[in-house]
Design brief:
- The structure is a homooctamer.
- With about 160 residues, chain A is an alpha/beta fold.
- Chain A is about 45% helix and about 15% strand.
- Chain A has a single domain, classed as Response regulator (Rossmann fold), CATH 3.40.50.2300.
- Chain A has helices at about 15-25, 40-50, 55-80, 95-105, 120-125, 135-145, and strands at about 5-10, 30-35, 80-85, 110, 130.
- A 5-stranded parallel sheet of chain A has the order 2-1-3-4-5, with helices on both faces.
- Chains A, B, C, D, E, F, G, H: This is YtoQ family protein.
Chain lengths: ~160, ~160, ~160, ~160, ~160, ~160, ~160, ~160
């Protein structure tokens, strides 16, 4: 079995990425995780910090968002699996954008969100191969998909 | 010049589609517009209405969203240009999903939203070839792109 | 709205294709239906009838199946939507093959089969955007997807 | 010569995978084999075991089949060669689905089945580059294709 | 049924194209045939006739072959089916090149050649969905594939 | 023979497009020509004229160039053949950009430029299927490619 | 984080490549840089030096440019990010061609040029995800994109 | 610089492959060469030797050619550069087929043949980025393309 590349898109204000990475590590899975830059301030400022100030907020955002796109598109295209997390707050349109982008590329999509978003996210969920509510479920999915192991069972498949 | 196919994605509670279609018609542009099913209730109920009731809201949404996807993905893939509108209300994750989907397919993208969403939509705007605030601007863009005409000028280009 | 191309794959011993075509016609939908050659004997014999007899059944089948593939692959690739029907009898591996072929091409897939096949067809159903049990449901799906109309409701959407 | 990736799809109730892997190993071939999760029960239960119980068998199957699809599609897309085995029993529609999926992606396809299935599998065989009856023949094919060696001959080709 | 595009590649010294076109016409098939420029002298001279003389035969050939490629590649890519004819004489490497080009694009390929070329053309035949010996067989294939009709049988399939 | 789509990219200060279109018309060729907006001022101003003024020249250019890209990319992707003209003046980087864009899409490319640019355009010419010096040569190329006719010869090929 | 491949296209008369490579090295970034052959004379002469003299300058250039294309297209297609530099002198149409080629392949594009070229390069800049004026800015972009670090800030993101 | 994959297609009766491999080795180039099975007898017999005898020569050839296709298509698709050699004898249609296949995939193509075949191979040469007459020229091309070195010059480019 070769190593899998998993991209973790979306919400950046809780520790869901760390929990998935720790769980995968504990399960001994050979996964390389990648993600957007998760430092909110850096992500907002990168365009003007590197390429020069802008008077209008629109162009500041534009320059920054494009720099971030160099990273995110490259990593999504390289990923075997894309996980998109929607949290409790904010518009999170970039998360839904990433989900659409990954879906159009044919990437297997796992969506992670609290149950209360079910109706609002129904189009995103409809494009996914799994809809989870906790990071631990995502770890279990990755463990099953990569190693063939289910919770509470012995290793199901050598590979 | 051949006829253009333009898909109008997103918000379904105002008359922005009608305003674009009427403006394009008035400008004499040869455009075939398409859109998702814009009857909100039909769009929500279609899955269970046709394929049978579900106890859980998740599966009701799932069946419906997948039927809608037959339409939306087919029309987006067929479109020459995709316009995505974000309104004042609701999560509108399906609009952002469509934008990501269209971007990954390499479709020219026009985003239409009020200025107050600039920061929250910066990743979507960064993938667009135009960001407009009014349906009338979208008409002007289509008129220029298809017919080479600018507001307040005589016809600029034969095509 | 442009005309849709819908390919009807699978079982050839009942009148499900006729029922879908009649229903779509009655609903006034602009659909061009296509299908494999549904004359079982012709489909089996075409290879040797045109290109010369074979001693071994394998090569007779091989020559015939390849001629049929000229038709089926061309029409599947041209289709906007692929409907695959599994009936009560026979192995029907060609139907499942077509479903896989269409799925890999990213074609919206509608699967039509009796409930008793649910478990055996779970991988095929998982790749579909709709799973129906009757030809009439397929007509309703096409009517909703193309015309925005639901059973028992007035026309829901202009398109 | 680089290492080859070979995906072994289909029947999970006999030891055909082990025989191919052992034969390839004995022949000194540099092949990484992959496969679906071959623990039947785990494969059936994975969806509800990880993501929560379902009342309807359809949704239990649906959730499980989609998790399995994360694995199978990723591995098929990564494979250089796809081998699909049809056994004596069961519907095996997932095997035919995988064959169609691989064919549409342009993957070289080897089909492995008993002679009695020749007629029923003619469309699948017609898409294949080899049709074998025993796992040992598959090993010989891989040995020839990768190392240029034929049974009963000295090494035929350096590579 | 929509009209089919069939490209007729290869040998230009016999009337095989006319026989196929006449046969298809007689059978009432809706086919648009295309072909390379079949005037041998024009095909050889076109480069220097339009773009200026060359001293070296290599560059004369090069300029001409590239002009012809504008036509042949465009028409092959547009074709639903590609027929490649190998005759009795000449190297005919351009025919084999077209066959490889069409195969890599996934176009259904019909090869037409006398039996004596079977061994020399085995790689080309292996990529084809039909290998015929006479133009009349090609007409029968097209009639079956498009109209579902076999020789000596009533119309087999509506389409 | 179906109608061809030909995109005419590049220099906008001489009448080369008109000469090609007139020549093709005179030759009775069924070609739909397309082009960028050739009104220089409109092309420069379109972004700010429709979407609002900018203080910085960079953003004025940026908004305009993106609107133009909606047109040019759509038409290049739709074209069967792309002609790129380099004139005597200006940087003309957009022409070279279009040539690279068309080449990567696999579009047959005809480059039209005065001999003095041969060395500077060698990479562009190397990607082309024809390099012409006059619009009349482009007409002759199109006449030969589409109708099989050479200057000073009777019609060479039916098609 | 895996290693990134970055292609450095364009101007070959200043040390901008060395400055980017040194800066990336200093920042500890795992990047494999590639570039065209930057020895101007070798790049001009390679065709005739290897494949034989030509009388006409056009064919000397043609043979050389095609050899260079073997290298440049392979490396651009392999790159994760393409940087294109426009300097003060020369036509630099090959740089613009590379930019168009990379854009059509969907490669993230960084353009590097002095401010005075802003208007002439507006179409190229419009296709880019970043427009820089100094090699040091390109280093900062790569550092941010790959390592999540901004100038004057501590490391922003683990990856 | 990463290692290059070069596929050597075509003639199998002279030592041209060995001369290229030895030359590349001497030049210190990091190239992985691949090729079809070059044992003529094994290549002819492989199908029946592994999968069982056939009465008709056509099917013997067919089975063998398909096994060879598993190898050749996989290696061509994996190659960065494809070299196709035409020798003095035989039809060599498989070489021309490989050239067409590689061209349609967009692979850089180097054709190697004696001058006397120039006219007969003009369509193949027109699709190539280099046409050489000796294996040593192919080595020089690879050395220049990969290492930037020309004969009789010091190393021209670091890479």
């Amino acid at each position: 079995m070769y190593g899998w590349d998993v991209y973790l898109s979306g919400e950046i204000h809780t520790d869901w990425r760390e929990r998935i990475e720790a769980g995968a590590d504990e399960a001994g899975l050979d996964i390389t995780f990648s993600a957007p830059v998760t430092d909110h301030e850096a992500s907002d400022d990168c365009g003007v910090a590197i390429l020069g100030q802008e008077d209008k907020p629109f162009w500041k955002d534009h320059k920054g968002a494009k720099l971030n796109a160099i990273r995110t598109r490259t990593l999504i295209e390289q990923a075997d699996v894309v996980v998109v997390r929607f949290g409790d707050k904010y518009k999170q349109w970039n998360a839904a954008f990433d989900a659409g982008y990954a879906a159009a590329l044919g990437k297997p999509l796992i969506v992670l969100h609290p149950q209360e978003h079910t109706h609002a996210l129904k189009e995103v969920d409809a494009a996914a191969l799994a809809v989870a509510e906790t990071p631990e479920q995502v770890v279990e999915i990755l463990r099953y998909v990569i190693a063939g192991e289910l919770p509470g069972r012995a290793r199901a498949a050598a590979e």
